[in-house]
Amino acid sequence: RIEIKRYPRLTSIGAWRTEVDGTRSGGFYTQQQVREVVEFARRRGVTIVPEIEMPGHSLAALASYPMLGCTDDHLKVATTWGVFSDVYCPGKESTFTFVEHVLDEVMALFPSQYIHIGGDEVPKDRWKACASCQALMKREGIANEDELQNWFVGRIAKYLEAHGRRLVGWNEILHGGHLIASATVQSWQDSSWTRRAVNEGHDVI
């Protein structure tokens, strides 16, 4: 976790979990600490690439700001590893306002040309049941939830590109159709994704 000054609940709530025995675990880097680590690395010829997960693996953010999800349910920070159904809601414009504000602070901290957005392991259950998501899909001519994820990733890629940065994501960002050319694909599941990304003209890790 890192400190995002515009959204303090990301660290006051999202950076901590309560274990089954009642103890509290967690922590976060302050922005000053991030700057120190980035500078330490820079002096040694190393560029740190931040990974800010979206639209999945976002349960801690949803526990901090429930309105970012499809259900508005009050959630808890997870105490186990896993893939959770609650993810960011692309049907709400406020989701993108939040994500862009977070990325603004991240880009101010990390001079890296590349910003990793994750994009992996995104359950679509909430989107299928969400009136806002379904209305967006109808409005934008999006055929299914894989295409909705592609639309989400594409919007974020364009935002980063407008700020002189390049999006990196796990191979699931290839789901759902065309991906913005500047995006870099990080393949983790099998080599077929590497071949597909290369064939579609993307840089690949």
Write out key terms for the chains shown.
alpha/beta; 6 strands; 4-stranded parallel β-sheet; two-stranded antiparallel sheet; 8 helices
Helices and strands in order:
Layout: H1 9-12, E1 16-18, E2 24-26, H2 31-42, E3 51-54, H3 59-64, H4 93-109, E4 114-118, H5 125-129, H6 131-140, H7 145-162, E5 166-170, E6 184-186, H8 191-199
Parallel strand pairs: 3-4, 4-5, 5-6
Antiparallel strand pairs: 1-2
Q: In a few lines, what is going on in this structure?
A:
The chain has 205 residues and is an alpha/beta fold. It contains eight helices and six strands. The two termini are 24 Å apart.
Enumerate the strands of the largest sheet in spatial order, edge to edge or round the barrel: 3-4-5-6
Specify the overall morphology.
globular
What helical percentage do the residues reach?
A: 25-40%
Which structural class should the secondary elements be placed in? alpha/beta
As residue ranges, the low-confidence spans are none
The H/E string reads HEEHEHHEHHHEEH
Query: Biggest sheet, in brief?
Result: 4 strands, parallel
Alpha-carbon distance between the two ends: 24 Å
What is the average per-residue confidence, as pLDDT, rounded to a whole number? Answer: 96
The gyration radius over C-alpha positions equals 17 Å
Strand content: 5-15%
How large is the count of helical segments?
8
Number of distinct beta strands: 6
